[in-house]
Amino acid sequence: MAPRAAVLLAMPAVALSAGTPYELLPCRAGEAALTTQNLTKCEYQHVVDALTLEWASLSTVCTPEDCEQAAWAGCVLRMAGHDFMDFEPGKGGGSDGCTNMDATDNAGLSTCLHEGLHGRTLDDIYQHACTKVSLADFFVIAGEAIMQATRALEPGAQPLDFASTFKYGRTTAKTCAEAGHALPDPEGACDEVERVFVQNMGLDWRGAAALMGVHTLGKAHPENSGYDGWWSDAENMRKFNNDYYYTMLMRGWMPDKAVGGNPAKNQWRRSDLKTPGSVGPARELMLNTDICLAYDSPAMGYKMSARDDTCCAWTLKRSLDGIEGEYCGEVGNVEDPEQQHRDCCDGELGADCGRVTGENLKAFRHVKDFAANDGAWIAAFQAAWTKATENGVSNLKLLESCGGGGGGSYPVPPHPMPPTPMPKLFDCSVEYPHNWQTAWSDWMKSWCCKHESKGCAQHVI
Fold first, then answer.
1. Number of compact structural domains in the chain
2. Which residues of the chain fall below pLDDT 70?
3. SS3 track for the chain
4. Domain of 342: which CATH number?
5. Which of 47, 246, 249, 256 has its CA 20 to 30 A from that of 319?
6. 48 with 73, same domain?
């Protein structure tokens, strides 16, 4: 069957919804490329560099109340994810640059897309590439750029390499009225993860669990989704690392019902005693569709429900062998399960949610593996990301060599570069001193000239 984008383009012209990215991001430089016809490694890097510097120009300060880099990164990744999560076999969808922005599940995406989140938009970058790169390809590249940049904040972390696996040629769909309604319902549990990630997107449970790790970045806003909080603490919320899995297992969680007074919105809050500010604006959260990966028990017919449960989700210390770090039950005798329960569960002994030992679950062993081994998560994540972003698309092509074109087709950054950016944004030894003029983008020349005095001969700041 032809990809949905191809089917739509063959249909008679229809009125475009103001809620589609195609309508909201018109190409002002000329005719928009609906399908990327050719793309070199340098041109791909131009877009990556632009997004990286846009993100790096935001404040690096993170508190439980606000974190600019985490919020913008999370919104960009959410845009890419909501684009590909609407794939259904035989019906289309996937990374086609289209999702129904008017749908309730997409509330808030317009801020980083075109309205401005902390003064930054994807539109600012897309305009420099819109005659060359389809919006469908652009959203995938934007997500990859953000993950690479935030990954570099984790000391000693295995780096991400998307350029060697990225394939171009996705076609932008102009309309997709049904797309915003295919996303997983957070009030469900792993049945929703199975429907969207396993049945529709074709991932196995390891891939599904790995892809959910994008929640390590960003925040749930009550004005958008109805949920409230960060998936990571202030130290980790702007880093693309495995903290999502670590926190899921090493902390205690209890239902947080009727978030903001809305009985239709229920989530999980940190319940271990050593969590200052575990309620209110500083709280960390998990949704049913997150925490079910570790605590659903299909063999027992049990699934996590913050709306219906009055229990505590926690894991016995002996089930977490191989995971290093601070465990919620280390106050008192760590060999005493009752003491561990009290320490992880608001100081009380009560009902346990799901399992506490980890047997007979679809995803627990993967969550545990990812919590213990960041590299294992990254390997599984990259495979799942590639599958998710290529669903339903045929004839994709690997990036071409740079050839003779230079990095001169993109202007200098629209926002001032930070004086001491963290992390080091570019490796200024690549292709230097012989081929940097053609291999580097203007973004990389600007940064390397300013911070390492390389690449300045033909590019003056």
1. 2
2. 1-18, 180, 273-282, 299, 331-334, 355-361, 403-425, 443, 457-461
3. CCCHHHHHHCCCCCCCCCCCHHHHCCCCCCCCCCECCCCEHHHHHHHHHHHHHHHHCCCCCECCCCEHHHHHHHHHHHHHHHHHCCCECCCECCCCCCCCCCCHHHCCHHHHHHHCECCECHHHHHCCCCCCCCHHHHHHHHHHHHHHHHHCCCCCCCCCCCCCCCEECCECCCCCCCHHHCCCCCCCCHHHHHHHHHHHCCCCHHHHHHHHHHHHCCEECCCCCCCCEECCCCCCCCCCCCHHHHHHHHCCEEEECCHHHCCCCCEEEECCCCCCCCCHHHCEEECHHHHHHHHCEHHHCECCCCCCCCCEECCCHHHHCCCCCCCCCCCCCCCCHHHHHHHHCCCCCCCECCCCCCCCCCCHHHHHHHHHCHHHHHHHHHHHHHHHHHCCCCCCEECECCCCCCCCCCCCCCCCCCCCCCCCCCCCCCCCCCCHHHHCCHHHHHHHHHHHCCCCCCCCC
4. 1.10.420.10
5. 256
6. yes
